[in-house]
Specification:
The protein has helices spanning about 10-15, 35-60, 60-85, 95-105, 110-125, 140-150, 155, 175-180, 190-195, 205-220, 225-245, 255-260, 260-270, 280-300, 305-325. It is mainly α. It starts with 11 loop residues before the first helix and ends in a 14-residue tail after the last helix.
Length: about 350
Amino acid sequence: MSQELDTAPASDTDQAKAPRIVVAPSPHLSEGSFTTRRMMLDVLVALSPPVAVSIWVFGWYAVVQLGICVISCLVAEAAFIAWRGRAFTLGDGSAAVTGVILALSLPWSTPWYVGFIASFVAIGIGKVVFGGLGQNLFNPAMVGRAFVMICFPAALGAAAYVLPGSPLSIVTQATPLTALKQGLVESSDVLSLLIGNTNGSLGETSAIACLLGGLYLCLRRTASWEIPAGTILSVAVISGAGYLISGSSFLHPLHHILGGALLFGAFFIATDPVSSPLTVKGKWFFGLGLGAIVMLLRLASGYPEGLMFAVLLMNAVTPLINRFTIPDPVGGPVPQRN
């Protein structure tokens, strides 16, 4: 029995009840609440422990640095968006996150103009030049920091962290990884690295604060746990092997993991969903490679810390990692024609 199609025009009531069909590429299943704004708010909440510790350790130095970088990033975002004639997107929180991460990656003594320039470079060259949020190849905060690291080496070098005779006792001593370079291994105890009672960049001093914030991001699924896990595993294996071979002349693996910016970078910088791989296998490769480059730079270069350069290098190869870790489709690979 044939059935004729109703070709009569639909009424307004029928059109209101009809399902809305959207033609778009996959994926078609998504969670509406998982928005950019929610992700950025999660990151800001997760950054609150490192921010609190930085203010506790460095006082007004941390407050001023955070204020300069956050305000500068917001101003830069508004200026570049207005210049491009686009709708303002300050409400998504991405510029504020960039400002906080940038500030926490800088020394307490950074001059105001360095943070200002770094913020504009982070937003302008690190994000806007690629097309805006979601299209940047490199982590914006690390682009800004790398730029001022090259332009103002004296303001961001090892000497910038130390101020002899300061009433703030923390800043009278070298950072743990600089002490390693100078052969002062005994100057870095694990308890101080956990609590944050050490010198260093604003956000890297307390391992506990970084772990608390990082675990929050992973539990909220805002960050992929595979990346920090791969980074920590890689550093643990390489530093552990060096410690077993060289003995006490080599820094203990816990010092490499808890010291410097490793945990801060592994949880808050490397997990940037835009500049990190998309696949699970790719995230493991990214984390393992990041940890290996960090250790290579720490041990074989003149820099006591290597996280910034390691992140930028791994960001550069992320498109290749995505290409070589494409998962097989459901049902297996597509058969090739003879």
